[in-house]
């Protein structure tokens, strides 16, 4: 019997059977809480039942004639969607216990198995606040990425430029829940003001999680792309000088206000003196009242003495300007002249009037 034609027939039959079903994707990685989708496509429509299994346990049964067959044990997070050439299995709100094998079993024809990976996204943070340092100082930064599965990839960037892994260290810890916490320390030489980023990621993340902190460098003068960085120390010194100048101005204004408040009674007295001195007739020789005079003493005794002296001058001026005295003086002069011209034969007598000065 010729064996060669028989071997060819067996190989062609095996190839036809393997081509009966396609499962896509073969490997899928999602984050916890996301949806996972697998599509099972038979090569022909001559099949009876399709069974989906998760980690070897039946999850969903689909009939070619009746569609999805519901059962009390059906996982509510599972659903099937009819496609043009097959069926899609959808896992809503995936959890880490869903990780493992996903199998499409076309009863009596073929079965295919794919792999599902569920990852956990944690948090990342640079410890501490923004930093302030002098030039050429070494500044230490510490980053912590907690609650990740699997262990995340952690890296540093300074001014959007990746730092070489040889310049920082990394340590990792795994908890009982198989969650990883990764810490890293980076030392930066303070050359200019910068922003420092710590990034953590797993393969299911479209973009790494980032934590950013600022580094301000004091006493630097840089000109880069037409921009000048003003030194922080000079700015602080200028601000302090302006504050000191403002305090001095306020002090001088307060002192002048208090000085004016103290000398106000003396100014009132000087005003009275000037008013009454103008009323003195031209007979009084001498100087004028100095309106700009200011007593150096601010005691009550000096003010009182000045007040009573002014009152005496006022009384004196008032006495000299009594109208009847001026009239009598004028009258006495005329009488005196008449007395002198009176002829002796009339027997006139000389009368002399005296006015107190």
Automatic annotation (TrEMBL):
<keyword id="KW-0732">Signal</keyword>
<dbReference type="InterPro" id="IPR013783">
    <property type="entry name" value="Ig-like_fold"/>
</dbReference>
<dbReference type="Pfam" id="PF22705">
    <property type="entry name" value="C2-set_3"/>
</dbReference>
<dbReference type="GO" id="GO:0016020">
    <property type="term" value="C:membrane"/>
</dbReference>
<dbReference type="InterPro" id="IPR007110">
    <property type="entry name" value="Ig-like_dom"/>
</dbReference>
<protein>
    <submittedName>
        <fullName>Immunoglobulin superfamily member 5</fullName>
    </submittedName>
</protein>
<dbReference type="InterPro" id="IPR053896">
    <property type="entry name" value="BTN3A2-like_Ig-C"/>
</dbReference>
<feature type="domain" description="Ig-like">
    <location>
        <begin position="5"/>
        <end position="104"/>
    </location>
</feature>
<keyword id="KW-0393">Immunoglobulin domain</keyword>
<feature type="domain" description="Ig-like">
    <location>
        <begin position="137"/>
        <end position="214"/>
    </location>
</feature>
<dbReference type="InterPro" id="IPR036179">
    <property type="entry name" value="Ig-like_dom_sf"/>
</dbReference>
<keyword id="KW-0812">Transmembrane</keyword>
<keyword id="KW-0472">Membrane</keyword>
<feature type="signal peptide">
    <location>
        <begin position="1"/>
        <end position="19"/>
    </location>
</feature>
<dbReference type="InterPro" id="IPR003599">
    <property type="entry name" value="Ig_sub"/>
</dbReference>
<feature type="transmembrane region" description="Helical">
    <location>
        <begin position="232"/>
        <end position="255"/>
    </location>
</feature>
<keyword id="KW-1133">Transmembrane helix</keyword>
């Amino acid at each position: 019997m010729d064996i060669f034609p028989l071997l060819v027939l067996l190989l062609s039959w095996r190839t036809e059977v393997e081509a009966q079903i396609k499962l896509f994707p073969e490997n899928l990685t999602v984050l916890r809480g996301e949806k996972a989708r697998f599509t099972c496509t038979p090569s022909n429509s001559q099949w009876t039942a399709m069974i989906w299994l998760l980690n070897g346990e039946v999850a969903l049964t689909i009939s070619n004639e009746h569609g999805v067959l519901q059962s009390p044990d059906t996982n509510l997070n599972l659903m099937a969607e009819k496609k043009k050439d097959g069926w899609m299995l959808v896992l809503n709100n995936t959890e880490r216990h869903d990780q493992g094998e996903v199998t499409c079993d076309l009863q009596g024809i073929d079965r295919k198995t794919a792999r599902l990976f569920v990852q956990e996204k944690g948090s990342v943070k640079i410890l501490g606040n923004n930093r302030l340092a002098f030039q050429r100082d070494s500044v230490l930064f510490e980053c912590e990425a907690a609650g990740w599965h699997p262990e995340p990839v952690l890296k540093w960037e300074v001014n959007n430029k990746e730092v070489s892994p040889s310049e920082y260290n990394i340590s990792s810890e795994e908890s009982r829940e198989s969650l990883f916490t990764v810490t890293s320390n980076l030392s930066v030489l303070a050359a200019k003001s910068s922003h420092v980023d710590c990034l953590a990621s797993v393969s299911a993340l479209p973009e790494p999680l980032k934590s950013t902190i600022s580094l301000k460098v004091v006493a630097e003068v840089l000109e880069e792309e037409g921009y000048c960085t003003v030194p922080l120390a000079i700015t602080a010194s200028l601000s302090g000088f302006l504050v000191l100048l403002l305090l001095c101005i306020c002090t001088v204004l307060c002192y002048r206000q208090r000085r004016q408040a103290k000398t106000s009674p003396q100014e009132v007295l000087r005003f009275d003196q000037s008013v009454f001195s103008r009323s003195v007739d031209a007979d009084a020789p001498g100087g004028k009242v100095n309106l700009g005079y200011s007593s150096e003493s601010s005691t009550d005794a000096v003010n009182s003495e000045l007040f009573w002296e002014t009152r005496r001058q006022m009384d004196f001026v008032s006495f000299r300007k009594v109208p009847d005295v001026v009239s009598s003086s004028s009258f006495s002069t005329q009488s005196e002249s008449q007395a002198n011209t009176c002829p002796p034969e009339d027997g006139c007598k000389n009368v002399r009037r005296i006015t107190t000065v």
